[in-house]
Design a protein that fits this description.
The chain is α+β, with helices and mostly antiparallel strands and 174 residues long. 24% of the residues lie in helices and 38% in strands. It has helices at residues 2-16, 72-80, 154-170; strands spanning 20-21, 24-25, 33-34, 41-47, 57-63, 83-84, 96-102, 105-116, 129-141, 144-153, 172-173. The strands form two sheets. Strands 3, 4, 5, 6, 7, 8, 9 and 10 form an eight-stranded antiparallel sheet that branches. A three-stranded antiparallel sheet has the order 1-2-11, with no helix packed on it. The relative contact order is 0.22.
Length: 174
């Protein structure tokens, strides 16, 4: 009986953590650990630290509903605004953005590094984190945009770059 209960609990946990939001599905890398439910998030993953980093990274997936969450450009600008260069200046000149299609869906990516200063409550660290990087993506799905925001120390983000790209390439409509 206890064994059956354990199987049911594990099964429920897997089902409760569906890799879908806004009419889209995706597949997260097996080495990334799905975290429990959090406010405003469709999913959260812990990204293991790379050799030389002591802190893990995090991929937060947000879905606010059709027409909600702000436009693509505004979100990219806000994410980039959460970083500063080593000399304390805004990081927008160093940020890289790209627009393309993945499985027929509009995809905008952003890559920025420096000191992660966040953007207020629930938007980032309480103290600045130098040597950080953000890999972000916004996929425009049939039910609205889904936002993928990976923040991590630079080495961990670099190690997560290919798995993150693979996750993005797995995004498709339900």
């Amino acid at each position: 009986m206890n064994r059956l209960l354990s199987v049911l609990v594990v099964t429920a946990a897997v089902v409760a953590h569906a890799e879908e939001a806004g009419g889209l599905t995706w597949t997260a890398p097996a080495e990334w650990t799905a975290q429990g439910a959090r406010p405003m998030r469709a999913a959260t993953y812990k990204v293991p630290p790379a050799k030389g980093d002591t802190e893990a990274g995090e991929l937060a997936v947000f879905y606010f509903g059709q027409g909600q969450g702000g436009g693509v450009d505004a979100n990219v600008k806000r994410w980039v605004g959460q970083f500063q260069t080593a000399d304390g200046k805004p990081a927008e000149k160093a940020a890289k953005t790209k627009t393309e299609k993945v499985n027929g869906l509009p995809l905008t990516t952003v890559d920025v590094k420096g000191t992660y200063v966040g953007g207020g409550p629930m938007m980032g660290p309480s103290t600045p984190k130098p040597g950080y990087r953000l890999l972000g993506a916004i996929v425009e799905g049939p039910e609205g945009a889904v936002f993928f925001k990976l923040t991590a120390p630079e080495k961990t983000a670099a190690a997560a770059e290919k798995p993150f790209r693979k996750l993005l390439e797995s995004v498709k409509t339900k």
